[in-house]
Amino acid sequence: MSDCEPGVSVGAFLCQAGQLLRAAGIEGPRMEARLLLAHAMGCRQEDLLRDPRAPVPPAAQTVFRAALAARARNVPMARLLGHAGFWTLDLLVDGSTLIPRADTETLVEAALDAFPNRGAVRRVLDLGTGTGALLLAALSEFPTAFGVGVDREPAAAALARANATRNGLADRAFMVAGDWAGALSGRFDLVLSNPPYIESAVIPALMPEVALHEPALALDGGADGLDAYRFLAGALPGLLAPGGRAVLELGQGQEMAVTALARTAGLRILECRPDLGGVPRALVLAGL
To answer: Which residues hold S-adenosyl-L-methionine (predicted)?
Structure first.
């Protein structure tokens, strides 16, 4: 696409953009082009479709071209839009954290089923909180709970704090940068974690949106992908309150190995819940 084109229409822009994204191998190129153009113009996608002959303002053309070029380089859509949906929340995203994914919502569902009495959860812990997605989703469902989110990356903890404010939960959430449970005392009714679980050698072969644009610290689970689970298995018995539950996200094919680590640490396996694709995703644990 050329530089600023006075009077170029929404329809023409979308046609050119769709062709560019299709050539770059992006799935759903027309839909993604609409998302980016609506973002650049500060309007809804429906507004674009309502009047495809409307001209695109020069300033919006500049923003759109930059975003389009980045998307063609496999920069994730959520990074370009600056936010992503998770559960009932709208979360800011940046390069310091993983982009929240729908598969992770399986952990929230499992937590809710573990505590049908919403008032029974008073203290929640999220280890490796990232955007704060799991902690904030839990707090939105357990109205009397207070939560702590811990992340090794200070920028991630700052982003999680911003998301707590954005979603009206800042008074019930405390975000801290630290080495997970190392500085924590006390016990929690609910412990959540979506830890790094990708085998180190596998990361370069992941889809480009992940391998090139997600933070390695949030992906790399060590040589066998289980480093974080070894830590969690050892820490959870001292973190869970009586009657407490932990819900951990699993990578594909990790159910048996993580279950074995948990049992060796003296934890009970209550459930391993599949995500919508049928992959065992949320491991629910309790103390003995």
So the answer is: 128-132, 151, 180, 194
- 74 marked among binding-site residues: no
- Is 131 part of any known ligand binding site? yes
Ranges of H-type helices in the chain: 10-23, 29-41, 45-50, 58-72, 77-81, 105-114, 133-141, 154-166, 208-211, 216-219, 227-239, 255-264
Q: Does domain 83-287 have CATH number 3.40.50.150?
A: yes
DSSP designation for 53:
T
Query: Is 87 annotated in some ligand binding site?
Result: no
Q: Is 130 annotated as a binding residue?
A: yes
Q: Where are the domains of the chain?
A: 10-73, 83-287
Taking only the tens of pLDDT, the chain with its 288 residues reads 445 455 678 888 898 899 999 999 998 999 999 999 999 998 888 888 888 888 889 899 999 999 999 999 999 999 999 999 999 999 999 989 999 999 999 999 999 999 999 999 999 999 999 999 999 999 999 999 999 999 999 999 999 999 999 999 999 999 999 887 666 778 999 999 999 999 999 999 998 889 888 998 899 999 999 999 999 999 999 999 999 999 999 999 999 999 999 999 999 999 999 999 999 999 999 987
The DSSP bridge pattern shows strands 123-127 and 188-193 to be: parallel
Q: Do the annotations mark residue 129 as ligand-binding?
A: yes
Closest CA to 236 of 288, 176, 280: 288
Question: 113 a known binding residue?
Answer: no
Per the annotation, does 57 bind a ligand?
A: no
Q: How far is CA 200 from CA 26, 220, 275, in A?
A: 26, 5, 24
Q: Determine if residue 204 is labeled as part of a ligand binding site.
A: no
180 annotated binding-site participant: yes
